[in-house]
Amino acid sequence: MKRISILLAVCLLLGLPAQAAAPALFQYQSSRLGFSVTVPGVRQDEIIAEETDTSVNFYHAPSREKYGGEIGSIVVVSPRSDFFSGHYDDMAYQIIAMGKNQVFLWKTPGGGAPTGGDFLDAFKHVSSTLLDEQRIQNADICVIYTCLACR
């Protein structure tokens, strides 16, 4: 009986996928905009990142097709002096980091959560983790800001 139990336990352990033990970690790197983002606690397949000329838009992958699923965007303002043009005075923008010649902004989408009840809890987890835990890296970043209101 013990042999069968041990054999069954070994078979179950070997049958588990290798990625189940790996910690959740979302990473995105933009060589064109010159930064990377690491978000612990979110799997790579939970977020879709779409890059434009000046920003990277983040979407909740399961909500994307049916509801839009927009979480927000990192907008890169360069040169840094352009930040003071008045265009970024809107409350939708928050400074998340400043480089020598760049400002990195988080832009929140307007309106409510772009998802439905079937994805709402997962959307809340991914969006709040992305906002609270994002780590932006760039060789020229001088200052990284933390959203105290988010904590």
Strand line-up in the sheet with most strands: 3-4-5-7-6-9
| Sequence of secondary-structure elements | HEEEEHEEEHEE
Provide mean pLDDT, rounded. Answer: 78
Instruction: Specify the biggest β-sheet.
Output: 6 strands, antiparallel
Number of alpha- plus pi-helical segments: 3
Query: Could you say which overall geometry the principal axes of the C-alpha atoms support?
Result: globular
- Runs in which pLDDT lies below 50 for 5 or more consecutive residues are 1-8, 147-151
Strand content: 25-35%
Radius of gyration (Å)? 20 Å
For the termini, the CA-CA separation is: 53 Å
Count the beta strands: 9
The computed structural class is alpha+beta
Description of the structure:
The protein has 151 residues and is α+β, with helices and mostly antiparallel strands. The chain has helices at residues 2-15, 61-67, 120-133, and strands at 25-30, 35-40, 47-51, 55-60, 70-77, 93-99, 103-107, 135-137, 141-144. The strands form two sheets. A six-stranded antiparallel sheet has the order 3-4-5-7-6-9. Strands 1-2-8 form a three-stranded antiparallel sheet.
Topology:
Blueprint lengths: L1 H14 L9 E6 L4 E6 L6 E5 L3 E6 H7 L2 E8 L15 E7 L3 E5 L12 H14 L1 E3 L3 E4 L7
Antiparallel strand pairs: 1-2, 2-8, 3-4, 4-5, 5-7, 6-7, 6-9
